[in-house]
């Protein structure tokens, strides 16, 4: 029996080392998801507001999942060092839950990016038509036009039929140069054409969202499938400890 324990010591030490290394990588993925969630909230927020009338919960889900992974990554390191089978099984169970959550999130993100164009065209056109320069959607439109150097839905002429044009003309956020863009110019369709961006925002916004959603979905899928490694290591180490009644301190 003592000889058997001596033989399994190197195996357990190897599994413990691998699981510790994995737990550290798992912790890093939590930091990555946390960062992606915050980036989505602050960088893609204006675009998402133009797709849906209500704010998206997706960045909060990613941020919350990332924070939970950070905590359980630390727990995984602790469980590995302590070598308690019940802790290792709990860690493996959590990894399986994270795998399912991330897989669902990744599939949803992948599907969502292919449904963007139709929804965006309707909501963005409505945001332009009802623009008043003050509400959240109007501010989102201004932010998009400044950031992407575009104007209107297909081009600047989209503004001519908006409720805002008779009062304020084309929004100042369309101006190529604010110093050379007066209020009178923006109310004159002929003069405005020389002062504002020519390209429409619809195609640009669609491209930005689709490319970024693809990155988010890819990162989520990659992290999700890495959970198999952790689950296998945790379960294997737990079985070895149980089978050999070996406790690590």
UniProtKB/TrEMBL annotation:
Lineage: superkingdom: Eukaryota
Pfam families from the UniProt entry: Tetraspanin
CDD domains, per the entry: TM4SF2_6_like_LEL
GO CC annotations, alphabetized: plasma membrane
InterPro entries named in the record: Tetraspanin/Peripherin (IPR018499), Tetraspanin_animals (IPR000301), Tetraspanin_CS (IPR018503), Tetraspanin_EC2_sf (IPR008952), TSN6/7_LEL (IPR048232)
Principal subcellular localisation of the protein: membrane
Keywords: Glycoprotein, Membrane, Transmembrane, Transmembrane helix
Family recorded in the similarity comment: Belongs to the tetraspanin (TM4SF) family.
Name recorded for this polypeptide: Tetraspanin
Organism encoding this protein: Seriola lalandi dorsalis
């Amino acid at each position: 029996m003592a000889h058997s324990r001596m033989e399994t010591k190197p195996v357990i030490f190897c599994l413990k080392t691998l699981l510790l290394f994995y737990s550290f990588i798992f912790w890093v993925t939590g930091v990555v998801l946390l960062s992606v969630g915050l980036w989505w909230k602050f960088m893609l927020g204006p675009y998402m507001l133009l797709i849906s009338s209500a704010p998206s919960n997706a960045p909060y889900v990613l941020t919350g999942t990332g924070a939970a992974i950070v905590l359980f990554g630390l727990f995984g390191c602790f469980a590995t060092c302590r070598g308690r089978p019940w802790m290792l099984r709990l860690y493996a169970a959590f990894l399986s839950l994270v795998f399912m959550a991330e897989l669902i999130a990744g599939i949803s993100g992948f599907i969502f990016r292919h449904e963007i164009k139709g929804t965006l065209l309707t909501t963005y056109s409505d945001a332009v038509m009802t623009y008043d320069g003050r509400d959240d959607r109007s501010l989102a439109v201004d932010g998009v036009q400044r950031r992407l150097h575009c104007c209107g839905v297909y081009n600047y002429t989209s503004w001519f039929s908006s409720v805002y044009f008779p009062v304020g003309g084309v929004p100042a956020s369309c101006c190529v140069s604010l110093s050379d863009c007066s209020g009178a110019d923006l109310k004159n369709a002929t003069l405005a054409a020389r002062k504002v961006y020519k390209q429409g925002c619809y195609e640009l916004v669609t491209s930005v969202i689709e490319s970024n959603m693809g990155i988010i979905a890819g990162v989520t899928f990659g992290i999700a499938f890495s959970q198999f490694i952790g689950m296998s290591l945790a379960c294997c180490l737990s079985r070895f400890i149980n089978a050999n009644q070996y406790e690590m301190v």
